[in-house]
Amino acid sequence: MSSFSLAWQFLTILPGWKSDGEITAQLLGRSMAFYPIVGLLLGLILWGTHWVFSLAFPRMLCDGLIITFLVILTGALHLDGLADTLDGLAAGKTSEERLRIMKDHRVGTFGIVGLILILGLKFLALNTLPDEVARKGLVVALILGRWSMVQLTYRAPYARPEGGLGLPFKENLKKREMVIATATSLALSFFFFRFWGAILWLMVGIFTLLIQGFFRRKIGGITGDVLGATSEANEVLTFILISGMLQVLF
Predict the structure, then answer these.
(1) How far apart are the first and last CA of the chain?
(2) Which of 50, 94, 125, 127 is the most exposed place for a label (fewest CB within 10 A)?
């Protein structure tokens, strides 16, 4: 199995390229180099879908359908991580308690409220953008959200001593994959938004560093749930920043 096909199958529910190759821990780490590319392809699918929906539906309904389609395409993987993370942060008093609560698959009040807020903010921010900017924003938000997972995995320690879903990625993500993902995300952001794309990339990078410091204090590092929550947070941040830039500039 190739690194790209593994990244595609892990981050989406869409059919991938079948291979008889064994999935190794090393392959999991190498696959993260392609996370921004997966974000690009998902974004292009949403771009085309948004255009088709806009021919048949009012803009507000179109945006709501696109957000729903994004959740379906990703299997709500990162939203699940966001809900677990928020429950752990809200209910746990110590690092150990937070990690234990995050491992519980049941969703609590804070997780539900967080899901409502994050999806609502995505919809509202997307709906403020002109059609063409909204479609570009979808692409860049998905690219940068997935790049932020690579950045966080590379830089932050893993929080669970006993291991977990994210540990093989953490242990096998090397500098080469981090550099490829970083360069790809920057180049693609610049392609879609020129100078302002580079600013978006920089702001997401800074915000991810802040997230890293926050979770080191709260739970001693990161988990797979934290990576999903980070991706969701940076997608929303990208939409909000694009909306804010348009408001200030025009």
Answers:
(1) 47
(2) 94
Dig out the tokens for 197 from the structure.
């794309």
Crossing angle of the two packed helices 175-219 and 35-56, in degrees rounded to 10: 80
pLDDT in tens, 49-92: 999 999 999 999 999 999 999 999 999 999 999 999 999 999 99
Question: Residue type at 169?
Answer: F
For 179, other C-beta atoms within 10 Å of its C-beta total 12
Kindly give, in sequence order, each residue whose CB lies less than 8 Å from that of residue 107, ignoring residues fewer than 6 positions away: 83, 84, 87, 115
Cite the DSSP H helix spans in 32-166. 35-56, 59-73, 77-91, 95-103, 109-127, 131-155
Q: Cβ(114)–Cβ(97) under 8 Å?
A: no
Residues 161/155, Cβ–Cβ less than 8 Å: no
Residue with tokens 């739970």: 219
